[in-house]
Specification:
Layout (H helix, E strand, L loop, with lengths): L1 E5 L3 E7 L2 E8 L1 H9 L4 E9 L4 H9 L2 E9 L4 E7 L6 E7 L18 E4 L4 H10 L6 E4 L2 H14 L5 E5 H8 L4 H10 L4 E5 L5 E5 L2 E5 L13 H14 L7 H18 L6 H4 L3 H15 L2
Parallel strand pairs: 1-4, 1-8, 2-6, 4-5, 8-9, 9-10, 10-11
Antiparallel strand pairs: 2-3, 6-7, 11-12, 12-13
The structure holds adenosine monophosphate.
The site of adenosine monophosphate (AMP) has 18 residues, from strand 2, strand 7 and helix 7.
């Protein structure tokens, strides 16, 4: 099965207490696609400018990511500049340059999609168009971020009716729902149509809510965190990659395992800047950490 990922392809300039990188490969779709490629075929739907480095195209392709639905548009690639302070629990966005995303649109005539869909972090109006223009039958997961909640909250709420799994972090869940308690926030999001809600709490793990199943996981504890960028996108890619990886019935055990795999992939992503933490690992590393996670949380 393949996973279709709509999201950003970006040049990230990020500074953390452990270093800085300029114009590194980033974007929600890059992280999510590489993360999911451990489990399934990944196809990115996005746009880049003519300035997008050839080596990044090659890097994604070498990792098995299908870029046939990535449009090269006239203009500059999306750029994001951010800084993390000592705690590294929050990215302070210094600059967002939409570049080609100001002009990127989807034409209405789209061929049917086989497989699942991950609407990674990008403009919610584009996420909505993606679902309206394609004929598809798989699971739909949708991620977002504070920027879109503060600028296009109604578009996100409208989208929730079409989404199976909605992912966001704890601050975003409180902001969009107006609730303090994360349980109330999840109930609010469930009531707006998202059958399943994943609330990410950074290194403190995740909460999962659906009718009949509430599930919690701690974060997989790792030392030497260098750059938290892309942890959420890698989580989403790992989780959806696992769900897409075979003809699985979406039962509670499979969902729990998918959430564990998502957490593990995210724990590798934060060990290095940009997507490098994901490039160094293989299925054996993932399985090893999976086993340790089971050990750490069994009682
Ligand atoms: P995360 O750390 O998982 O929240 O995601 C970080 C990634 O999101 C970075 O690689 C950025 O390039 C990308 N990003 C930042 N702002 C936006 C935005 N407004 N829309 C889409 N992607 C973004």
């Amino acid at each position: 099965m393949s996973l279709n990922i709509l999201g950003s392809l970006a040049l990230d300039s990020v500074e953390t207490p452990f270093g800085r990188e300029e114009e590194a490969l980033g974007g929600s779709a890059s992280y999510a696609a590489i993360a999911s490629s451990f489990f399934c075929d990944a196809k990115i739907h996005s746009a880049i400018g003519e300035d997008f480095p050839k080596e990044y195209v090659e890097l994604l392709q070498e990792n098995g990511v299908d870029l046939s639905e990535v449009e090269v548009l006239q203009g500059k690639t999306f750029r994001w500049k951010a800084r993390y302070k000592a705690q590294m629990d929050h990215a302070y966005t210094l600059r967002t340059e939409l570049g080609v995303f100001s002009d990127y649109d989807l034409s209405e005539e789209r061929p049917p999609i086989k497989g699942d869909i991950l609407l990674a972090n990008i403009d919610p109006e584009l996420q909505e168009k993606f679902l309206s223009f394609y004929d598809f039958s798989g699971i739909v997961a949708c991620d977002t971020m504070g920027h879109w909640i503060s600028t296009k909250k109604n578009a996100i709420l409208k989208l929730l009716r079409k989404v199976d799994i909605f992912l966001l972090n704890d601050a975003e869940a409180r902001e969009i729902s107006g609730e303090r308690s994360l349980l109330d926030a999840a109930r609010y999001l469930n009531s707006k149509g998202a059958g399943m809600v994943v609330i990410k709490k950074g290194e403190n793990g995740i909460l999962f809510f659906k009718k009949g199943l509430h599930f919690m996981l701690p974060g997989y504890l790792v030392g030497g965190v260098q750059d938290p960028t892309g942890a959420g996108d890698s989580f989403a890619g790992g989780m959806m990659g696992y769900l897409s990886s075979s003809e699985r019935e979406l039962n509670d055990i499979i969902l729990r395992r998918a959430l564990v795999y998502g957490s593990i992939i995210a724990s590798f992503a934060v060990g290095e800047f940009s997507v490098k933490g994901l490039l160094k690992i293989n299925m054996k590393d993932i399985t090893e950490r999976y086993g340790k996670f089971v050990e750490l949380t069994a009682f």
